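Progress report, Aim 2. The chain analyzed during this reporting quarter is listed below.
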Amino acid sequence: MYGRISKYREDIGVGVIVADDGRKYRFFRSDVLNRNHAIPGEDVDFIPLGHRPIEIIVMKGSPWTAFGAGLRG
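Predicted structure tokens for the chain:
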């Protein structure tokens, strides 16, 4: 599912995603796979699991910036 981060508090690592269908989901920083990016206004892709989003990917940059650090040898 796609959405957008509408709120995020860096100090406590909690935010809100508004999905394309209008539903709101509260998330924790640990739910974001590419944790360098959790900024209000950023588009995200995620899997809704009940009332909670999991496997959140911020759609910023290339796949290398999102996951490249783990692929280095």
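DSSP finds one helix and five strands in the chain. The chain has one domain: 2-71. These observations will guide the mutagenesis work planned for the next reporting period.
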